[in-house]
Amino acid sequence: MNTFNHIWLPAPTNLILLSDDVHIWKIDLNQPESQLQLFRESLSSDEISRAERFYFPEHRQRFIAGRGSLRTILGRYLGIEPAQVEFEYQQRGKPVLAAKFADSGLLFNLSHSQNLGLFGVSYQRLIGVDLEYIRPMSDLERLAKRFFLPSEYEVIKFLPNEQKQQVFFRYWTCKEAYLKATGDGLVQLEQIEINLTPTTPAQLLVTGDWSLQELVPGDNFAAAVVVANSGINFQFWQS
After folding, report:
1. Which bin fits 92, alpha (ψ -120 to 50), beta or left (φ > 0)?
2. Which string of DSSP letters, residue by residue, matches the chain?
3. How many CB atoms sit inside 10 A of residue 47's CB?
4. Spatial distance between the Cα atoms of 124 and 228, rounded to a whole number of angstroms
5. CA-based end-to-end distance of the chain
6. 236, HSE (Cβ side, Cα atoms, 13 Å)
7. Residue 178 Cα distances to 40, 94, 98, angstroms
8. So what's the pLDDT on residue 1?
9. Which of 63, 75, 122, 130 could form a disulfide with 176 if both were Cys (CB 3.0 to 4.6 A apart)?
10. Within 13 A of 129's CA, how many CA atoms are on the CB side?
11. Closest among 5, 129, 75, 42 to 239, alpha carbons compared
């Protein structure tokens, strides 16, 4: 899987997002209490209410760290304080910048799993990000048969057991990233065709002009980013 590893660099003080740029941010959601408190102070009342609905403290803390990091990062692009960032919500609860920020041209998407978060930021390009922790699943083949194309299921079915999980989650993240980019809740996972092997990067076989980038942001994680159009310059930042 070294093919998909990237160097994550500290972000420059002066963030510049050109029209062909897509910035991918890796976020550690395991933050000390002092930082969580700072993040919490930047959240809106509805975000605080959402955080307080989580039953387990670690889930609440991850949500606060994720939203606080997102606000901090977007605030840097917009030149405003994190608390001044405002969101609206689309279908499936996808957050977007409020209409008052439309002139910025910023589009973004986020995903998190366990203690890791992944944010993608683009300039006027639809973008979808998905991140999954690779974990044992007793019904993996059944899920693959239900949600994947027959050709994709056949790939997984005949892999050695130690590769099944990794390849399953690669398929899953690529498909979810595409769905999140298009915002189309009507399209199903089994309608999105992905061509991949254990040793080669995935290809997205759909109509339209889309770029797919697989990532390995940490041990036992699979991730993918889908962006509208080609000729993308990906840059990888670690906050």
Report:
1. left
2. -GGG----EEPPSS----TTEEEEEEEE----HHHHHHHHHHS-HHHHHHHHT-SSHHHHHHHHHHHHHHHHHHHHHHTS-GGG--EEE-GGG-EEE-GGGGGG-EEEEEEEETTEEEEEEEESS-EEEEEEE----TTHHHHHHHHS-HHHHHHHHTS-HHHHHHHHHHHHHHHHHHHHHHT-TTS-GGGSEEEEETTEEEEEE-SS-EEEEEE--STTEEEEEEEESS--EEEEEE-
3. 19
4. 9
5. 24
6. 15
7. 31, 13, 23
8. 38
9. 130
10. 26
11. 75
- Chain-centroid distance, C-alpha 70: 12
Q: Which tens digits make up the pLDDT trace of 116-175?
A: 999 999 999 999 999 999 998 889 999 999 999 999 999 999 998 889 999 999 999 999
Token pair, residue 189, equals 């996972």
Q: Go through the chain and tell me how many residues it has.
A: 239
Q: Output the six-digit token pair for 174.
A: 């690529």
Rounded Cα distance, 216 and 209, in Å: 24
